[in-house]
Structures are given as structure tokens and as C-alpha cells.
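[job 0417] fold request received: Cysteine synthase
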Amino acid sequence: MKKYLTIEDTIGNTPLVRLQRIAAEQCAKNNNVILAKLEGNNPAGSVKDRAAISMIRQAELEGKIKPGDTLIEATSGNTGIALAMAAAIRGYKMVLVMPDNLSMERRAAMKVYGAELILTPAEEGGMEYARDLALTMQKEGKGLVLNQFANLANPLAHIHTTGPELWEQTEGKITHFVSAMGTTGTITGTGTYLKIQKPSIEIIGAQPAEGASIPGIRKWSKDYQPEIYKPELIDRFESIGQLEAEEMARRLAKEEGIFAGISSAGALVAAVRTSERVKNATIVFIVCDRGDRYISLGIF
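[job 0417] inference complete; emitting C-alpha cells
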């Protein structure tokens, strides 16, 4: 009898594709290739699907939760959507705490999966305020906070899946790995695995330039820096401006047929800069989600 997949089985193993037009002349000149890891192909539409299912599975293994329990998480969007899907798959109630200035598409997607949303005033502290509220709710016995910012199952998801996939897909030829930095789970986990395989691989983190507000790219204050973050792992930081990220998002769709979010475009900006300064390189950047969840922001 044929064994059919479940939706959970479709998380990961996303395509890695070569850019054909953006920076093509420059890549040809320096003998480089820029490759995009299409994480929007995950079932809930982002790289966060990997961490979400990993955190829930680990909490189950440790006996912290059982189906029917309530999970709580502060989120800026993609993790919330991924957790809402993962909770639906495995039978949990999901409460998501998020700033009220995030896109309507992301709110709607969370609700579709059955999650309860608690919106916090963005002007009162954004994600920091949301994180504090989630922890307060946990203390009040309203559910378990998985805490993507401190949960080792977050980067472990990328040590076990994203990193090995990139190593195999590039046949070990990857020389530079570029990722936007939010919770830092993707860059920490993937970077850890790749450095073990080949210490010379350069890990490049995209951070927001002064004054930029790019969904999915953060620069945390010391008091709120994610516990999973390993700054010593990052070889180079690239500051990404608001307008250049938005323009690159439009170019990525029009010139490459890849409809991606603004943080993905920010990572591409960093990848193109990398290609300008190196030769004979295989540069991989993470396309962390799809662009359709940002349409209401007006950048497209």
C-alpha cells in the first residue's frame, strides 16, 4: 500500500535556484554565482516552518506539552504563521502576540490556521513589548511560551535540515552564506553546520541600516538580544537601507520571477555586495518568505 505524505512531511527540502539577470554581468566578470534558497515553498510560506515544527516536537519530547494544550508566542509575522500551522497539524491551541503595525495579510493567515491574535501597540515598544506580554501570560498560567528567541530547537532545525540541504545542493561548493537577521535562528543554525563542513565559508548577516524598518530584519538592543544568537559566528554584517530593500524586492519579482518579501530582498542586496568584492564564489542567500503577505504595505 502506498505511503502518502502528511503536510508536515513537506516542510524543508526547498529548491535552490540560480539568479539569471540580477547582477549577471558582475557575476560573469568575477566568475561568481548567486543562488536563492526558496523558503517560501514551505507549506506555510516561510523558513520559519522549520523552526516551528522543531520547537513543538522538542517540547513534546520533553513532556512539556500534549495535544489540546495552549501555546503562546510573540511574533513579528512569519513565526506566528508557521506556529499557527504547526499547532493545527499537531492539535494545539495557539495564541500569538504581535505589534499592531504588521501587515493585514500576516494577521489573516494566522487566523485562518485557527490562532488567537493579541495585538499590542507598536508605539509602546514593538516586539520587545510583545515578548514581555507573552512571558507575563505564561506566568499567569495561560499557556506555554515556546520562545523562539531562546529555544535551541530553533537553530537546531537549521543544523539538521537547512545546512545539510545547502551543502548537498551545492555539492560542497558554497563559499558565502547570506541571511537576514531577525530571531537569528536561521543564520545561527545554518552557519554552524556550514562552518563545521568548511570553516572558510563566510557567514554574512543582513541588518537594518539606521532608520530602516524592514519586516524580518532586526538589530536587537542588548537587553533583548536573542539567547540563541552567536555573534562570533558572523564574519560580516551588511547594513540594508529601507529603499534599497524595497526596490530589490520589486526587481526580484520583475527580473527573476521570484515574488519574495522585503527581508529576502535585503539578503539579496547583501549577496550582490558580496559578489562585487569576491571572485570564483558560490553565494547563497535565503529567500525567507513570499511577497504576497506584504501587498498591503504598498511597496509592490
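[job 0417] notes: Strands lie at 16-18, 33-38, 70-74, 93-99, 116-120, 144-145, 176-180, 202-208, 236-240, 282-287. The chain has nine helices and ten strands.
[job 0417] exit 0
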